[in-house]
Design a protein that fits this description.
The complex is a heterodimer. Chain A is built from seven helices and two strands. Chain A is an all-alpha fold. In chain A, strands 1-2 form a two-stranded antiparallel ribbon. In chain A, a hairpin with a 2-residue loop joins strand 1 and strand 2 (9-10). In chain A, helix 1 (24-46) packs antiparallel against helix 2. The longest helix of chain A is centred in the middle third of the chain and has 26 residues, at 80-105. By secondary structure, chain B is mainly alpha-helical. In chain B, helix 3 (27-62) packs antiparallel against helix 7 and helix 7 packs antiparallel against helix 8 (200-225). Chain B is elongated. The termini of chain B are far apart. Classes of the chains: A mainly alpha, B mainly alpha. Chains A and B meet through helix 1, helix 2, helix 3, helix 6 and helix 7 of A and helix 2, helix 3, helix 5 and helix 8 of B. Chain A: InterPro entries: Caa3_sub_IV, Cyt_c_oxidase_su4_prok. Chain A: It is found in: Cell membrane. Chain A: It comes from Nannocystis exedens. Chain A: The chain crosses the membrane at residues 27-47, 54-75, 81-102.
Chain lengths: 177, 227
């Protein structure tokens, strides 16, 4: 039998399948912790934490994700090369996020200087608001309105003034085109 | 050459294992290769979803009030139930892998059924959520018509719902594919294809399913909860 290499290292007992078998207590503890943390995020979402809420929610999500990766996906006991692949991915996601957000945040000054998004700015300055969804496609808009009419008016949710105000605003927007 | 053989009587076991593909020397090597392949696939999955997460963060940065207002239209309870369901399914899947590590095929099949059941509950809840959104015209891009239905959301809500449907939709497709794979594994387990020394297909199915769970762990607070 030829010598077996794995990830550049010679494997000593290549015929064996090395797998760590976690005890039931580990899985039970992990799922318990995951439920508790889910409850925590849920509870926190009702409290008014202001800008800190995103940080708290992401922190809890990271802890939950780490538990799943380490114990359910066995990365804690697995070949360290898999951990390297996983963390490598996270680093690239970090670069992707970091550079893009940096670009987005420093873009306003550039946009003003180079007058990009002129149509968007003009509309906003004229107080016309932004064309939303079906407003951009008159035929589809007419079709949706006809459907609403056929069903006896809109659902008129309590959100932001209901049907009439929405209708008036929509007409206003359509006229602006 | 003959000397080497004398040192390795245990290799006989591998050479007779019907599940060892001819291009691998040992079961250990075969298992490690399959798992490395799976982790590389999961890396591409994470990178794919990261683009959508980034779209969400940019939208949130540009229109914070709009995102907050629009997310009020998502059901916290539906999202919460789905989180618990998906975490439970991850737990049963992990127990399934543990069962086959111990050579218990019967328990593995039971755990696969439980996992599939949880996945189906997830999809049913998702169906009701989507139906409500369709009915209220809260659709992506040029299909958005919630303002005609009497729901006013300032800013560009049609882009928020575009991001919402892309993220939860792509995640939902992953759940559906996961269900199909687990059904396949259930059938294969029934044929006696898996044992304590040959279960890497089950383990990889588990890894995929846990990743689906992992993505939901981030989707849930970002879309449904965050203030």
């Amino acid at each position: 039998m030829a010598k077996v290499f794995l990830n550049g290292q010679p494997v000593e007992h290549a015929h064996e399948v090395h797998e760590h078998i976690s005890p039931m207590s580990t899985y039970n503890a992990v799922i318990g912790a995951l439920f508790v943390l889910t409850g925590l995020t849920f509870a926190v979402s009702f409290a008014d934490l202001g800008p800190a809420s995103l940080t708290v929610a992401m922190l809890v999500a990271f802890i939950k994700a780490s538990l799943v990766v380490a114990y359910f996906m066995h990365l804690k006991y697995d070949d360290k090369y898999h951990l390297f692949v996983f963390l490598g991915t996270i680093i690239f996601v970090g670069i992707f996020f970091g550079f893009t957000m940096f670009d987005m945040k420093s873009r306003d000054a550039l946009n003003d200087e180079q007058e990009t998004f002129v149509r968007w700015k003009e509309q906003e300055n004229a107080g016309k608001g932004l064309a939303v969804g079906v407003d951009n496609v008159p035929e589809r808009r007419a079709k949706v309105l006809a459907e609403i009419e056929a069903h006896g008016g809109g659902h008129g949710g309590g959100h932001g003034g209901g049907e009439h105000k929405a209708e008036a605003k929509a007409e206003h927007k359509a006229a602006a085109h | 050459m003959s000397n080497e053989h004398a040192h390795a009587p245990a290799h006989d076991d591998d050479e007779h294992n019907p599940h060892l593909a001819h291009h691998f020397d040992t079961m250990g090597q075969q298992t490690a290769s399959a798992k490395l392949g799976m982790w590389l696939f999961l890396a591409t999955e994470i990178l794919m979803f990261s683009g959508l997460f980034l779209a969400y963060f940019i939208l949130r940065m540009l229109y914070p009030e709009m995102v907050l207002e629009a997310h009020e239209h998502l059901s916290k309870w539906a999202g919460g139930i789905n989180t618990v369901v998906l975490l439970t399914s991850s737990y049963t899947m992990a127990l399934g892998v543990r069962s086959i590590q111990l050579g218990d095929v019967k328990k593995l099949r039971l755990m696969l059924v439980l996992t599939i059941l949880c996945g189906c509950i997830f999809m049913v809840v998702k169906y009701f959520e989507y139906s409500a959104k369709f009915e209220h015209g809260m659709l992506p891009g040029k299909y958005y018509s919630a303002h005609l239905h009497g729901y006013e959301i300032d800013g560009l809500p049609h882009i928020f719902f575009g991001v919402y449907f892309m993220m939860t939709g792509l995640h939902g497709i992953h759940v559906a594919i996961g269900l199909a794979i687990m059904l396949w594994m259930f059938v294969r387990a029934g044929r006696g294809e898996f044992g304590a020394k040959n279960y890497v297909a089950i383990e990889n199915t588990g890894l995929y399913w846990h990743l689906v769970d992992l993505i939901w762990i981030f989707l849930f607070p970002l879309l449904y909860l965050v203030k």
